[in-house]
Write a structure and sequence with these properties.
heterodimer; A: alpha/beta; Leucine-rich repeat, LRR (right-handed beta-alpha superhelix); 3 domains; 7-stranded mixed β-sheet; two-stranded antiparallel sheet; 10 strands; 30% helix; B: alpha/beta; Alkaline Phosphatase, subunit A; 8-stranded mixed β-sheet
Chain lengths: 383, 486
């Protein structure tokens, strides 16, 4: 095994390790560089700009190397996306000689570029989190999810149930019963989804008639990440059917019959990071117990209003500030007056007359002519 | 999609219909044609996932686009310029105007006197040091920490028609598909009983400009992607009700017969518009059941109605349309467009703009709160935008409490919230006059590219081939702005 592959293998091992840690820690505490940025660079850049090769004098495999830049100088300017050569190169047309990666190499996708930009905008930190940058979600089943059975998809569509791949090329499915919610019950859900058990990733059953059987069924869906049960009759006994479903991250239970008795059920869901409970019968105590779990975001419909930090006084209007177009005071071409001698309006430095050695400014193009009709009268109004 | 490939898919579809019409019997009340069209076949692919759909996992699944027709004054709502109070009635300096064009409504004015906003502003806390909002938006202030304010928006158009067309279609000239149509094409329907792209209009309080139906047209996309306008009085959708004496069974028979004839014609002519037509007829049949339930607010509790304000009980108001927007969102409608007319305040701005904000402020804040507590805000993208801003100088007479403002495309404020958008930030900056952008300009294409990103699309790959070239919503430009993403 070459040294290069050893490095790769080691870093992969490190990535896996941090992946395990990730599950038990709030994602926001991770180093964004370690879990998000470095993997992108490793995947797309380090082949030519790393420990083995340094094309253009540039290496991108460690924080020190990135800071050092290449023979052209810095490629990452913390806090300034526009000035960062790295980003500029990524955005050049593919056929541009300066475009990176070279056009025959795998390219970064838009999301990866956006991620790098976000990191640079945040000051390109090498430690600590960056808002909005989290490790790419581990596919619920990296063990090659099988494609869904076409007949099962047709069966869903024939019932007017929405089904769509979570993204292009993915076998994971988002399934939404919105169109037929009022007639959706346990039997229908189980009949339609049994053949799609391993692909169901996001499931929306809002406003439906589902109950305990469906929840128990959902507890056995290995890839189920998001479940929407808003406006259903689901209560504590039904919810308990989920058990310790391993993948569930988001759960919407707004306006259901959930009470304090479900706190343990919710805390037992290992991957759960967001739960909506507005309209449920929860005591302050139960809420506090849920909110004590740092990785769990609990929405009880009680989000406080934005704080008003400051209210300004009733404004006063003046024209005391000098126009940025005025020559500085003391300059011989600076007008002696701030108000038009004809109308009393603020002056516009564009319209002037020189009278008795003094520069006089007016408010509009009509006033100099008016001034000329009786200069002495108007000059008397000058300061 | 490649037209030749499309042609082959059409052939497959025809063949399938030929068999399906006879072999598939009693599904869903024997609606074989309708139920088939409700699914993948409308996209020409049997038993496969539609080819469209997000390129990558999206944050937002749907859009509520609040278009403020007329061009709301950023200076009186969102862009706080306290120094202007000390420049009252001064002339707009040449160094600020920089010779930029004005509309002919004010280009002949002898003076361009600075009109500071007469309204007090308040600083609402957010993640970027706070955002100053006008006192006439007290309810919006309560959700400021959910919103990303973009103070550095710019457009190329200086008049309403091209301005709205640009925001809606990415091009100033008519003829391109609307944003909502692109989303209908790209995302597909998530509720086969309702239109994918719904449009609602609220009449404003002052000067209103025409709203052409082409703003929600599908351009060269198949016509099933055009917006469906929901009316505020009478039937929400015209001609949806069966005429007196016609039963639902009669209607079904009629549709089956016309469907069979259409199918025959489609098989011979291969004209995709026939499919669109059949799909729409079937959709209308299902909407006969789904629309009355949608627009009936009797299942809303009093507290929810109160959140939106008293206007919510009057059909067609912005408040009623916001509540309807929430109901459409929770039923899976992908693109919900509200137009609020009447922001074109060339004169008498202080009085008129308050009538406008009274109509929208409480309702738009309620929409955010209502979506949030239902767990829908995370996956619903809200955009609030006019077609341009308004000038810092007064059009016509200026007093401390009365002034007008002309159209201003160089710099104005729009905001976004919800699915995939960074909450509680202010982005971009204008100069001390609110006239030019001094930091982080955002073009209409950039905005579109960024919004498409939250919906899971690479804006350069969401294309449709027409007249020999691939068209995009973002034309040949646009950049995703990472700072705006959650």
């Amino acid at each position: 095994m070459s040294a290069r592959w050893t490095v790769l293998a080691l870093s992969l091992a490190a990535a896996c390790q941090s992946g395990e840690v990730r599950d038990s820690l709030a994602p926001t505490r991770e180093s964004a560089y370690e879990v998000v940025i470095a993997p992108i660079l490793r995947e797309r850049c380090v082949g030519c700009h790393g420990s083995e090769r340094a094309k253009g004098g540039l290496r991108l495999h460690t924080p020190e190397a990135i800071r050092a830049g290449g023979s052209m100088g810095a490629v990452v300017v913390p806090g300034n996306v526009g000035a960062s050569e790295l980003v500029r190169r990524l955005h050049l047309a593919l056929d541009d000689d300066e475009h990176m990666p070279p056009d025959d190499k795998p390219q970064l996708d838009a999301a990866q570029i956006a991620t790098l930009e976000r990191w640079i905008a945040a000051g390109a930190p090498y430690e600590g989190p960056v808002d909005g940058l989290v490790a790419p979600q581990k596919a619920p089943a990296p063990t090659k999810m099988a494609a869904a059975d076409p007949a099962a998809l047709s069966a869903l569509r024939n019932e007017l149930v929405h089904v769509q791949a979570v993204s292009q090329g993915s076998h994971a499915l988002w399934i939404d019963f919105a169109a037929i919610a009022p007639r959706t019950d346990d039997a229908l859900v189980e009949r339609l989804l049994t053949p799609l058990k391993s692909q169901t990733s996001e499931l929306a059953l809002a406003r439906s008639k589902v109950g305990g059987a469906t929840l128990a069924f959902c507890g056995r869906l290995p890839a189920l990440r998001k479940l929407d049960l808003r406006d259903t009759k689901v209560g504590d006994a039904e919810l308990a059917g989920l058990g310790a479903q391993p993948a569930l991250e988001e759960l919407v239970l707004a306006r259901t019959a959930i009470t304090d008795a479900s706190v343990e059920t919710l805390l037992a869901l290992p991957a759960l990071r967001s739960v909506h409970l507005w309209g449920c019968q929860l005591s302050p105590d139960a809420l506090a117990r849920l909110r004590a779990k740092p990785t769990l975001r609990v929405d009880f419909g009680d989000t406080p209003d934005t704080v008003i930090a400051e209210v300004e006084d009733k404004p006063k209007f003046t024209s005391e500030l000098p126009s940025p177009d005025l020559p500085p005071a003391g300059d011989p071409s600076a007008p002696v007056n701030a108000k038009c001698p004809v109308t009393g309006s603020p002056i516009n430095p564009k319209y002037t007359r020189t009278f008795e050695g003094k520069v006089i400014a007016f408010c509009c193009p009509n006033c100099p002519g008016e001034f000329d009709t009786d200069p002495a009268k108007y000059a008397a109004k000058l300061p | 999609m490649n037209p030749i490939e499309e042609h082959y898919l059409s052939l497959t579809r025809r063949r399938f219909f030929g068999k399906a019409a006879t072999s598939i019997g009693a599904g869903l009340g024997a609606l074989s044609l309708g139920s088939l069209l409700g699914g993948s076949l409308a996209h020409g692919q049997d038993n496969m996932l539609p080819q469209q759909g997000p390129h990558f996992a999206p944050k937002a699944k749907r859009v509520i686009y609040l278009h403020m027709e007329g061009g709301p004054s950023h200076l009186d709502l969102y862009d706080y310029k306290p120094e202007l109070r000390r420049r009252f009635n001064q002339d707009l300096p040449d160094s600020i105007r920089k010779g930029q064009r004005l509309t002919t409504m004010t280009s002949g004015q002898a003076r361009f006197p600075i009109a500071p906003s007469m309204f007090r502003f308040q600083r609402c806390e957010n993640r970027t040091g706070g955002v100053w909002l006008s006192e006439i938006l007290p309810h919006t202030a309560t959700v400021a920490n959910e919103i990303a304010f973009i103070h550095s928006m710019e457009t190329e158009a200086i008049n309403h028609e091209p301005g709205i067309t640009f925001f809606q279609t990415g091009n100033q000239q008519p003829g391109r598909p609307s944003f909502g149509s692109w989303m209908s094409y790209g995302l597909g329907s998530a509720n086969a009983n309702l239109p994918t792209f719904a449009v609602m209009i609220t009449q404003g309080q002052g000067n209103m400009q025409a709203l052409a139906a082409r703003f929600w047209g599908s351009g060269f996309l198949p016509s099933e992607h055009q917006g469906c306008k929901l009316r505020s009085s009478g039937d929400p959708v015209l001609y949806l009700k069966d005429p007196p004496g016609m039963t639902r069974v009669d209607r079904r028979r009629m549709l089956d017969l016309v469907g069979a004839l259409n199918e025959k014609e489609a098989r011979e002519s291969l004209d995709p518009e026939i499919d669109a037509r059949v799909a729409q007829a079937e959709m209308a049949y299902r909407m006969q059941m789904s629309v009355p339930e949608l627009t009936d607010f009797s299942d809303e509790d009093e507290a929810t109605l109160a959140l939106y304000g008293d206007d919510v009980r009057k059909p067609g108001t912005f408040a009623a349309n916001c509540l309807l927007a929430r109901r459409l969102a929770e039923r899976g409608v992908r693109f919900i467009q509200l137009y609020m007319r009447g922001w074109d305040q060339h004169g008498g701005l202080p009085a008129e703009i308050q009538l406008q904000t009274r109509a929208v402020d409480r309702a738009q804040a309620a929409l955010i709160k209502d979506l949030r507590r239902r767990g829908l805000l995370d996956e619903t993208l809200i955009l609030w935008a006019g077609e341009f801003g308004r000038t810092v100088y007064s059009q016509g007479t200026l007093t401390e409490t009365n002034y007008g403002r002309d159209h201003h495309p160089r710099a104005f404020t729009v905001w976004a919230a919800g699915g995939g958008i960074a909450p509680g930030i202010s982005y971009g900056k204008t100069d001390d006059y609110g006239y030019n952008i001094v930091e982080n300009p955002v073009s209409v294409h950039d905005l579109h590219a960024t919004l498409l990103h939250t919906l899971g699309f690479d804006h350069e790959r969401l294309v449709y081939r027409h007249q020999g070239r691939d068209y995009r919503l973002t034309d040949v430009s646009g950049r995703v702005i990472p700072e705006l993403l959650a």
